[in-house]
Design goal:
Layout (H helix, E strand, L loop, with lengths): L12 H26 L10 H55 L6 H24 L1 E2 L2 E2 L11 E6 L7 E6 L19 E5 L2 E4 L4 H54 L3 H27 L11
Antiparallel strand pairs: 1-2, 3-4, 5-6
Length: 299
C-alpha cells in the first residue's frame, strides 16, 4: 500500500485509500444487515457459489420430501376409505351370518325362510352397491370404469426421486358366484340372475346350511382383504417415519450451509459499525491534511 506525499495536493492518496476502505466497510456492513434481515447467509450466488449450489439442491430435495410426506398421508387416507367400506360390508356379512344360521333351524317355516331369503338378497345387493360406490378423488377402489369387479392397482410417489414409489393392489371382490366370488361355497343356496344380482335359496335347512358356508367364505375373503390393506398401511407408516427422519437430516445440512449464525453476524455488525465510524473520521482527517501546505505560503 502506497502513501501519498502531503506536499503534493493534486492527488490526496490518503483520502482515496480511506474512502476505498470505508466503501468496503459499508458493503460488508450492508451484507451483515441483509443476513440478519433475511436469516440467510447466502442471499445470492456470489456470497458463496459452491455453497449456494449445494443449498439449492438440498432445498429441492427437502421440498420434494415434504410433498412425498403429504402423498403418503393421502395414500393412507385412500386406503382408509377402502378399509372403512370393507368394515361396513363386514357388518352386513355378520348380519347375514346370523340370518343364515336362523334359517338353518327347522323351527322356521316356509314363510319365515322366504322372508329371510328376501333380506339376504337385499343385503347382498347392498354389498354390491357399497363396492361400486367406494371411490377416492374419482378413482373407484373395487371396480373398473365399466363397474365390473377388478383388481385396482395403485402407485404412490413416496419419495423425492422418480423411483421412490410404492405399489398397492386392492384385489377383486365379487358379489355373485364365479371365479373369486365372496360367496363361493354357497352351492345351490346361491344362484346368479345377472352379474350384479344374486338369489338365495334357503327353502330347506340343508340349503340354509350351504348359505352359512357361503357367508363364512365371504367373511374369510373380506378379512384377508382387510389384512392386506392393513399391511400396506403399516408399510406406508414406516415409510412416513423414515422419510421424516431423512427430511430432518437434509434440512439440518441445508441449514448449516445456508442459514445465518445470528450471534456471529451481530458480533461482526458491531465491529463493522465501529470501523464505519473510524473510517469516516479517517476520511475527514485525510481530506483536511493537505491544508497543512498553506503554512508554506504566507508572509
Amino acid at each position: 500500500m502506497s502513501f501519498g506525499d502531503l506536499s503534493r495536493i493534486s492527488t490526496n492518496v490518503q483520502a482515496l485509500q480511506a474512502n476505498a476502505q470505508l466503501q468496503r466497510t459499508n458493503q460488508e456492513l450492508g451484507l451483515r444487515q441483509l443476513r440478519l434481515a433475511t436469516g440467510s447467509r447466502l442471499n445470492r450466488a456470489e456470497d458463496d457459489s459452491a455453497g449456494y449450489s449445494i443449498s439449492k439442491k438440498l432445498e429441492a430435495r427437502v421440498r420434494g420430501q415434504a410433498q412425498a410426506l403429504a402423498n403418503i398421508g393421502d395414500a393412507k387416507s385412500m386406503l382408509t376409505v377402502a378399509e372403512g367400506s370393507l368394515n361396513s360390508i363386514m357388518d352386513v356379512l355378520q348380519t347375514m351370518k346370523e340370518k343364515a344360521v336362523q334359517a338353518a333351524n327347522d323351527t322356521m317355516g316356509a314363510d319365515e325362510r322366504a322372508a329371510i331369503e328376501s333380506q339376504l338378497e337385499a343385503m347382498t345387493e347392498e354389498i354390491h352397491v357399497m363396492l361400486a360406490s367406494t371411490d377416492f378423488n374419482g378413482t373407484n377402489l373395487f371396480v373398473d370404469e365399466d363397474g365390473d369387479p377388478a383388481n385396482v392397482s395403485l402407485t404412490f410417489q413416496v419419495g423425492s426421486d422418480s423411483g421412490d414409489t410404492f405399489d398397492v393392489t386392492i384385489e377383486t371382490l365379487r358379489v355373485g358366484r364365479g371365479g373369486g366370488s365372496m360367496f363361493e361355497g354357497a352351492g345351490v343356496a346361491l344362484v346368479n340372475r345377472d352379474p350384479t344380482e344374486v338369489e338365495w335359496d334357503i327353502s330347506t335347512g340343508e340349503n340354509a346350511r350351504l348359505a352359512i358356508d357361503g357367508v363364512d367364505n365371504a367373511i374369510k375373503v373380506l378379512a384377508d382383504r382387510l389384512a392386506h390393506i392393513g399391511d400396506s398401511q403399516k408399510r406406508l407408516t414406516f415409510k412416513q417415519d423414515n422419510l421424516q427422519t431423512a427430511m430432518n437430516n437434509y434440512e439440518a445440512a441445508r441449514s448449516r450451509i445456508n442459514d445465518a449464525d445470528f450471534a456471529k453476524e451481530q458480533m461482526e455488525l458491531v465491529k463493522l459499525q465501529i470501523l464505519q465510524q473510524t473510517g469516516t473520521a479517517a476520511l475527514a482527517q485525510s481530506n483536511a491534511a493537505p491544508q497543512a501546505i498553506l503554512s508554506l505560503i504566507g508572509g
